[in-house]
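hey so u asked for the seq, here:
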Amino acid sequence: MTPDWAARPTSVPYAVFGDPQSLNLYVYVRNDPISRNDPDGHCMAHGEGDHCGPGSLADGFKMSLRQSEITAQGSETATPPEGEAQNKPQTIDQVAMSAETAAIKPTRDSVKNGDYHEYGGLILQRDKSGNLSATKPIAGKERSVDLDSILVPKGYTVVGEYHTHPHGTADEGQGPSPQDIGRLRQLGDGRTGYVVDSYSGVVFRYTGREPVKGPFDTNVYGTKIGVIP
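ran it, structure tokens below
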């Protein structure tokens, strides 16, 4: 019954000018009460983990990812309303840990089923803001995953990639394989790689500059950045 208000004087509080529904100060959650809520009466939230304010997980951004069949998992950080502090963007390691956490469960399920499928995705940087996000993990075949098949939406650059190793025992080891490192060398675009083995849950960061000696090198390369239970 009352119009939305702003913490500071502004013509249309919290408007997203690409969405006409946001220009109506009397409408509730842009006429989408099923998937959105308005806990404080002036600032709409889309759902779990969303940041309140203009451009938060902006509709255009979500549509672009949906059309490319990818989902943001990391730190696509919205511009906050006036008077609110901006969330600190996540580092690439933090985005990778979140992405690997999403990928390890289906990998472990695959190992239990005897399929040994890898899962993985890309880490993207938004050209305009520099913020990072990760694509939803895709399923590969037995002990491989085709990350080059993932569509990259316009306005984003690939800065990293992540994948899993479906291991059933500790003897299968941790860290990137020589083939993983060789792939980054061949791509030559400076991206950072991340890998987790499903048995231990240990996540490693690696680059194409690791001093791997050959395809059968059994040394452990890369840097351990965390463990997924």
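Helices lie at 59-67, 92-112, 178-187. The radius of gyration is 21 Å.
lmk if thats what u needed
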